[in-house]
Design goal:
Elements lengths: L24 H21 L18 H8 L9 H35 L7 H13 L2 E2 H8 L3 H13 L3 E6 L2 E9 L1 H23 L3 H21 L6 H6 L13
Helix pairs in contact: 3-7, 4-6, 5-6
Amino acid sequence: MAEQDGVPDQAGEQRGAPGGPPRTPQAAGAAAVGKARSGVAEIEEAPAGPVTAAGETPVRAPGAEEGSDQAAGGGEAPDRGAGSEEALDREAEEITLAVMAASRLIVALSARALASVDVPLTLPQLRSLVALRTCGPIKLAVMAATLGVTPSTALRMVERLEALDLTDRRVNPDNRREVVLRLTPAGEDLVDRVLSHRRAQIRALVERLPAQERAGLVPALTALTAVAAGLDPVLDPSAEAGRLAGVLDDPLNPAP
């Protein structure tokens, strides 16, 4: 009875593949040697990589090498521009809302302080009085420029304040053709009372803040305005805030 393929039969010969000529022992040995050499060559040419417990090099999936190179810093970083833009937009909107809320708070506190005196004034008129106290006797054109209004608007403000005996107009001693504006003693007293009342209200709010948050308020807001001034000096509100003592116009009551 014949043996399986590659196993000697009774005649001492080795059979080959079915349908092929029988292989002799010498041919079988040569084939084994060739196969062993071929395996050594494959091992030497195989790419370097981690070796499994069985001593074999694992086969990488297509694209795995490129992905690992990118993860190691050899490839391009993923594009995160869209996400960064969205985060900056959200942050800008949050800052806008916070600053607007703070501005409305100052307007409300100024209006409340103004209501504490027995003189009917609007916030723009109070700004005019503050500008006169800060800048001293000034010409109408200078006052209009300080307030950011037209000379005709500034003149209407002055006329109403004169009717309340809070300001007066005098001839400029250096130029008889010019008229300068100044506060009366009653005007100076009213400005002091209003600003003192507002300062007390803001102090009451600040005292309720934790020390750490209170310490960070001024540097943060100052840094924001400093950046604006660096981009465009026209946007710097620091000088105006100093001249007008931080008295903001009421957007719902812009009348002089």
